[in-house]
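EI: anyone free to look at a 388-residue chain?
SC: sure, send it
EI:
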Amino acid sequence: MKQHVLFVDDDTNVLEAYRRGLRDRRDQWELTLIPCSLLAWDTLQKRSFDTAVFDVRMPGLNGIDLLTRVQQSLTLRDMPVIIVTGEADRSLKRTALNLGAADLLNKPIDREDLLARLNSTLRLKAAQDALRVQNQLLEHRVRERTAQLVASRLDIIWRLAKAAEYRDEETGNHVIRVGCYSRAIARVMGLDAEFVDNMLIVAPLHDIGKIGVPDSVLHKPGRLDHREWRVMRKHCDMGAEILSDECRFKHVARRFGADSQTLAHVLPADDPVLALATSIARGHHEHWNGAGYPHGLQGEEIPLEARIVAIADVYDALRSERPYKQAFSVDRALSILAEENGTHFDPAVYEAFLLAFDEINALESEFNDAAAPLLSSQVHDEDECLVC
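SC: here you go
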């Protein structure tokens, strides 16, 4: 494939000399000869060249001005430029080199000198192009590998959420619905897109701490006594610990050869997704009035993400059939939420829930539990179980 060379000089005799002197290279190079610097600049916006030769003395834009424009252009700055001058002024030559000229030529131009300079700049351009292609390929591979790691990590998060749901003997799509409802509420509240999408990913992990609750408490038929409720309420802090304490795993992974780049993608330091999940796991049973657990936070002391998941979780619990209760009607569930507005729930989040309710109602139908089997052993107190 031919390489493209641009010559710009207001002297048409010089341009003709270029054409005659390089006619034996027509099978390798395509020459473009332009007698006007302004026209040359317009041409550079429309066509790409492998190298260019600018005369320094031209009306309108001189060669230095044209070189400056080229260097300031993100699309043109990689094109090597040779500056031709009849001047003996060293400061002018230094200016050209400082501005990014790849080489200099003095008039009168020697053909062999010109060929040497052109061959040099064309090899430079070819090397730059090859490097750019290689970098693009590497960037594509990195993006592809990163996407695979992220997808794998998200898959693990969802599987972990589902494991926690089965551990609690809940059935169906509860964790999926809580994630979808939380995302819908966050979107209506006008939160940034990354936060909104992350809520879909991490809200399903809200009860992951129940993995650490003993079977004797988690699966006890009948009411829990005071001691057992203290144990049950520890699931919030246990969930936060599960989601935040990965340091020991990193140490072991490195010990057995996991490279730092892979670990950085799989378990990045200060990961905002895990930080969000940790905050939700710890705070989703806190109440707006401070009567919740595990730390009795109130108002805006409770992280916003936890306040959002709180109402999504309770609404889905009210609307879901459990071994110990039938599903409440939509009207009854909404009535209970209204009663808890300002005490259990953040009023702003409650209002966002109502604004998002049409979407939430559609999501409930899409991810319903119609085919899910029921278990029949647990008979916890209704008020306790809806929010435990």
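EI: The chain has two domains: 3-136, 168-386.
SC: 👍
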